[in-house]
Amino acid sequence: MALSLLLALTLLLPGALPHGCPSSSSPNPIADRFPDKVTGTLNGTTLIVPVDLAFARRVIPAEFGILEGLYRELVPEFPAGRYPMVVTTVHDHDVGVKALNVSMDDFSVCYFPLEFPFVDRLNNNHTPFRWAATMLLTTGSAAINGSQAYGIKVHPSTFHPPCNAYNLDSQGTTTLTAKSTSPPRSLSLSARPDYDYVPYPFALIRNITNQPTFALSSGPCDAFARVFDTPLTGGANRPVPVRADVRAELEPVQEGRSWFDVYGWRFSSAFVEPVLPVECKGLA
Asked: What range does the record give for the signal peptide (predicted)?
């Protein structure tokens, strides 16, 4: 998922930055459909990591509830007393605002582990938001400024591979690592296709990835939306269910922590979001 790129884009002159990081990602298919908004493509992996509900309650801002009933409607068999923390690693490609003739270089971003969906940000007991307060993001990317404007703690990081969402071997296994040095933070992920056991329907991933995000209790929200009706997410590019191992050292897991055999989906999609931040209350 992307964050609003308003501040990042204001640093760029039209056409000023060359796309110096060659990527195998597909071109942005929706720039003409949403010329006045930020659009681009995302390619990567989204995983569901079941954690103790009590842990989620401790780290999510106390003034907001957790809409447990909503995620249990989507996955009735989700384990009792558990919460679907999300690990997302994506590569942003062909990002820009068509009407302004503004574009930016590709970048990669990891949201881990502070991506907590189904948060009752409006306290209305039915509108889910994602709380995403920490990330690893490509060192030197102009997107760092836009992310920090939301109050997100960003760790500029080196990604391997640097120009794509992951390395892919002949067996379909994908790998990714991201590391920052000051302070030392890291994430590594290895995922392989698993069609035999798919505990989380793609409908859950669609729901979560289209929940508005926020980082600060009193700050603005990002009305980001994935767009799934393009060739990026269909036909030969249809989403792939995966089983993965994750290793991370990042807030709130200050000491290294590993999760094995967690499940999710590898997929690509277009995305669209407003150029300006929005008030959260307008997203009911």
From this structure: 1-18
Phi/psi region, residue 81 (left: phi>0; alpha: psi -120 to 50; beta: rest), is: left
Counting the structural domains of the chain, the total is: 1
Q: Which domain holds residue 157?
A: 38-282
For residue 182, give the amino acid letter: S
Q: Evaluate whether residue 19 is within a structural domain.
A: no
Task: Look at residue 109 and tell me if it is in a domain.
Answer: yes
**pLDDT tens track for 47-98:** 999 999 999 999 999 999 999 999 999 999 999 999 999 999 988 888 889 9
What are the E-state strand segments in the chain?
38-52, 65-66, 82-97, 102-104, 107-111, 115-120, 129-132, 134-138, 153-160, 167-168, 174-181, 184-193, 213-214, 225-227, 240-250, 253-273
Can you tell me the distance from the alpha carbon of 217 to that of 121, in angstroms, rounded to the nearest whole number?
8
Q: Is residue 181 part of a domain?
A: yes
Residue 99 belongs to domain with CATH number:
2.40.400
pTM of the model: 0.89
Cα distances (Å, whole numbers) of residue 211 to 49, 81, 196, 214, 219: 17, 22, 28, 10, 16
Residue 201 above 90 pLDDT?
Answer: yes
Summarised one tens digit per residue, pLDDT across range 120-153 is: 999 999 999 999 988 888 887 777 777 777 778 8
Residue 275 domain-assigned (yes or no): yes
Q: 190-222 burial by CB neighbour count: b if 16+ within 10 A, else e?
A: bbbebeeeebbebebbbbbbbbbbbbeeeebbb
pLDDT > 90? residue 281: yes
More confident residue, 201 or 157: 201
Residues 242 and 192: their CA atoms lie apart, in Å, by 5
> CA 199, CA 264: separation in Å to the nearest integer?
8
68: left (phi over 0), alpha (psi -120 to 50) or beta: alpha
